[in-house]
Amino acid sequence: MSTSQTNVVEFAELARALGAAGEQSDRLMLAVNAAVELIPGCLHAGITINRAGECHTLASTGEILSAVNVLQNELGEGPCHAPDREDEVVQINDLVGDERWSAWGGRVNGDFQLGSMISIFVYTARGSYGTLSLYAAAPDAFDADDLATAQALAGHLAVALAAGREIEGMSAALQSRTVIGQAEGILMERLGVDSDQALAYLKRISSHTNTKLVQVAGDIVRTRQLPEAPDRSIG
User: Fold this and answer.
1) Which SMART domains does the record match to this protein (predicted)?
2) CATH code of the domain covering residue 58
3) How far is CA 168 from the centre of its chain?
4) Same domain for 22 and 58?
5) pTM for the whole thing?
6) Separation between Cα atoms, residue 9 and residue 3, nearest integer Å
């Protein structure tokens, strides 16, 4: 079985497990454990919620995530600390060399021997937001495929939480934009096109198959395969 086929099966199993989980805490733990299992190099994963500029750990694969969030609060900086964060995805390829949160990144590297991380919005609401955060030991540990997998995980978790009505005010549009943007990135790489051409391609597939645009994009992100199109040319 190919890697893409394996990911499809694993995501299908995860979706069923998330839907069947009775408690929010169970869903969160399923997601963070899946991140470590599905993404090579990911040593630690967690769900962080920011309430009024304070980081709180809702679920994690170990104690390090809580300690990392405590550092964000103590130092007053970090990817999940800003109450007005707008970036849906924050990727730090080198925690020591990144200048945005240099004090925090240096401490995380020195105290916990971590070199890179990814933080992705799971939901946004008035006065708070939640993220899926992944950490690796080495710098530049996460590639484009890892980011795509992490975004798909965040999307699955967002849908499961929304279905369970555990988080009020979740922005479905935010997750749609994230998934569509990642699909555009895959098309840009595979077909050698710009973002406008990639979006036009997605819309053409959506219209031809009578499938919602976000579903077309989600299938591309999950499988890393391009769908059959009535016209493979881009223009």
Assistant:
1) ANTAR
2) 3.30.450.40
3) 20
4) yes
5) 0.69
6) 10
